[in-house]
Amino acid sequence: MLPPKTTAQPPVDRADAPVTLAVVIGAHGVAGEVRLKVFSDDLGSYKIFNGGALTLKSTRHGSNGTIARIAEVTDRNAAEAMRGMELTVPRSALPPLEDGEYYHTDLLGLPVISTDGEALGAVVAIDDFGAGDVIEVERPTGKRFMVPMNGEAVPDWNGDRMLVDPAWIV
Predict the structure, then answer these.
(1) Residue in 99, 29, 95 with CA at minimum distance from that of residue 64
(2) Residue 53 pLDDT more than 80?
(3) Residue ranges of the alpha helices (H) in the chain?
(4) Does 69 or 8 have the greater pLDDT score?
(5) Which DSSP symbol is given to 14?
(6) How is domain 104-168 classified at the architecture level of CATH?
(7) pTM for the full model?
(8) What pLDDT score was predicted for residue 97?
(9) Which residues pair with 119 in a beta bridge?
(10) 3-state helix vs strand vs coil in the chain, percent to 5
(11) Which CATH number fits domain 16-91: 3.30.950.10, 2.60.40.420, 2.115.10.20, 2.40.30.60?
C-alpha cells in the first residue's frame, strides 16, 4: 500500500495574514445595517473586507457601537445572520508602525517571561480602560493577571516574547 500523497503547503506570508478590524455585534434597523465593535481608530479608510466578499459603504457613530452599511447586506435577516462575523483586511493594508507602536494582533499569543527569566504564560487579551492598554496574561495554571503596557511594567517585547518586570506580577 502506498502512503497518502501529500502536497507541500507554501509558507504563510505574514503580510497577507488577515487582521480583524471589527466584528458584527448585531443588526440595526430593518434596512440591513449592522452594529460593529470596532478595533481600529479609522475603519472608514478601509472599503473592502474579508478578501473582497464585503464592501463597506458607510459608517456612523451609534449609541451601542458603530453602525455600518455593507453593500452585500440588504435586509435585517441578512444583517442578523452576520452576528459574530469578523471584518478582516490583509496585514499589508495596515499603515506602517512608528517606534514603540504595535498592533494588538502582534501581541496576542506572545509568550510572557519575567525579566528574571521565569516563564509566566502568554498574552491572551489587551484592554483599554481609558489610560492606555492593559495586557492580560494567562499562566499555565489558567490564572490570569494584568499589567499596564508601559516601559516600567513591560520593558521589552518583540515578535518572539514579552518581558514583564516582576514587580508587576500578581
Answers:
(1) 29
(2) yes
(3) 76-81, 104-107
(4) 69
(5) G
(6) Roll (2.30)
(7) 0.71
(8) 85
(9) 113
(10) 15, 40, 45
(11) 2.40.30.60
